[in-house]
Amino acid sequence: MSFLKRQRHEGDRYPGGRIGERSGPRQGDRSVRMASPERHAQLRWARKWAVQGPAATRVFDFAATQGNVRPMREQTWTRRGAMAVLAGAPLAACGGSEKGAAGVEGTLEWAIAGPWRLEPERDRYRHPFDTLRFWGLAPGMTVLEVYPGRGWYTSILAPYLRATDGRLIVAEWDRSTATPAQRETMDALARRFADRARFGIIEHAVLDAESGPITAANSVDLAIVARNVHTFIAAGFAEKAFRDIAACLRPGGVLGVEQHRAASTGDPDPLARDGYVQEAYVKALASEAGLDFVGAEDINANPKDDRDHPFGVWTLPPELRTAPLGEPDNPQFDSAPYIEIGESDRMTLKFRKPETTAEPEAAESAP
Description:
Blueprint lengths: L2 H8 L26 H14 L3 H12 L13 H8 L2 H6 L13 H6 L9 H4 L1 H8 L6 E5 L7 H10 L3 E6 L7 H13 L3 H4 L2 E5 L13 E7 L2 H7 L2 H11 E12 L18 H10 L3 E6 L38 H6 L4 E7 L15
Parallel strand pairs: 1-2, 1-4, 2-3, 4-5
Antiparallel strand pairs: 5-7, 6-7
Helix pairs in contact: 2-3, 2-4
């Protein structure tokens, strides 16, 4: 009997341990070049005319460390020039590798730096450039985004794929059976991305416990499940969700997963009620859907997150829940320690559909 069936029917623990090789450096291991005194003098001048405060210091220091500022003897600085450096601020927040062609339409840097972004201040926790590059996003792809929510990743993917002649499909709940909150979220997403000149045509599909194929088989280059594996588990169709996603991937296509990471030891909650999921279980779901594990990165890791929060992962930013779900907010609850932690510790995984695929194991029939 498969691992998932044993867990479901016999209550076995998910296998412990941090499984899988790390295909790149851990977050924070990157080195940067030191800015010369001449560059620092130049940046002090730019700050005076462009912007004040700690955020400005980070922006201009980032530009200097990346070598994006020429010595003063080679460049005459103006207010406009100073603001041009500042325009790279969203990329600076995304991580050390997020630099370069922010002004070139059609690049990923451009899509991340755009004024259409939703909550770009979260980039320091979610690192969209490094994450999407790890998953292999490329121009002209057909991308499936599963349960986009308010559209945090959609605000990057839609303009990028529109500009590069790609295709974006979002899989959502079936409107006829969705809860009022789910319908409200879907309506807000449709309104937010209604501008076809900027975001292109976003196709909509359905994924739930009773849905049929998400889209045509073997047609998707990259599928993204960002912070939603626990949603599948809580709704009782995690195995089906992974099978349906795998079915629409082309041979060689990739599934990228970002998920709140539970401790690798101890008894997991079979309903993932705190939002955290063991990495081994996500790998098992993908494997039984016929996908090969490619690698994992700690791009979105947060060692400050001990996972011990009164209202699950939603106690942390960006939700900052102060009471159990369904109850009124508690104004006496102190969120300061959770703001200090930041957003959750997350696994970032990559799976690939084999070029020659075998049929995934069929679900057991009911007696």
